[in-house]
Write a structure and sequence with these properties.
By secondary structure, the chain is an alpha/beta fold. Helices cover 34% and strands 20% of the residues. It has helices spanning 2-8, 27-34, 60-72, 97-108, 123-134, 148-152, 158-169; strands spanning 51-56, 79-86, 113-120, 138-142, 173-179, 187-190, 197-199. A 7-stranded mixed β-sheet has the order 3-2-1-4-5-6-7, with helices on both faces. The radius of gyration is 17 Å and the shape is globular. The N and C termini lie close together (12 Å). The relative contact order is 0.20. Mean pLDDT is 77; it is low at 1-28.
Length: 201
């Protein structure tokens, strides 16, 4: 965690591919928001475990966000919740994705407690209700590279709009993560305070 914050606070390591800062945003606000990644302090003064949630689906970018969360956010003793949202028109009992990904996470990082949720319903409403119900500290969402067609028209995909809405609406620290191409490496990380900052690790 310390290495992540050091990278986010070093101008030599991250670069912005889109310098769109929210109005009135300050770097101090960014660091304040990032505190949720450490967990909270209990009455004894020790950092207590935190709950981290990743929204997963069949896409490669959601799986990349899940693995990024394991290496950059989830620490020993933390609870990692994988949330799979099934559209109302589909049978949620047939979905095994979250279970399979949960097993992968446990194998990769056994010191992190992993739980899976498969919920049928609308995406945004489901995320809002589960974040509040489970008292999630950090929410991570995968993002994919926007199509050239949409970029030319200055439009966003429904997936990008969903991530933006989560970032701007939810009270917990919400992070959008997109893996860079093989030739570039690293990740583009977005929060409420900054957009598309390049994180090398």
């Amino acid at each position: 965690m310390g290495s992540l914050l050091r990278q986010l606070s070093s101008s030599q390591i991250w670069k912005s591919s889109s310098r769109r800062w929210d109005k009135g945003a300050k770097w101090d606000d960014t660091l304040e928001g990032m505190k949720g990644m450490y967990g909270s302090y209990g009455s004894t003064g020790f950092v207590t475990k935190k709950r981290v949630m990743v929204v997963v689906d069949e896409s490669s970018h959601s799986k990349q966000a899940m693995m990024w969360t394991l290496t950059h956010v989830a620490k020993n003793g933390d609870i990692l919740t994988l949330l799979q949202i099934v559209p109302p028109s589909e049978d949620s009992s047939l979905s095994q994705l979250a279970t399979a990904l949960g097993s992968l996470c446990k194998a990769c990082k056994p010191e992190v407690e992993v739980e899976t949720l498969v919920i049928q319903g609308p995406r945004m409403a489901t995320v809002i209700s589960q974040v509040k119900k489970l008292e999630v500290k950090v929410l991570v969402l995968g993002q994919k590279k926007p199509s050239l067609f949409l970029k030319c028209l200055c439009l966003k995909s429904s997936a990008d709009e969903f991530v933006e809405q989560c970032i701007n609406t939810l009270d917990c620290l919400t992070i959008g993560v997109r893996k860079q191409s093989n030739g570039v490496g690293g990740y583009l990380v977005s929060t409420r305070w900054h957009r598309n900052f390049w994180l090398l690790a």
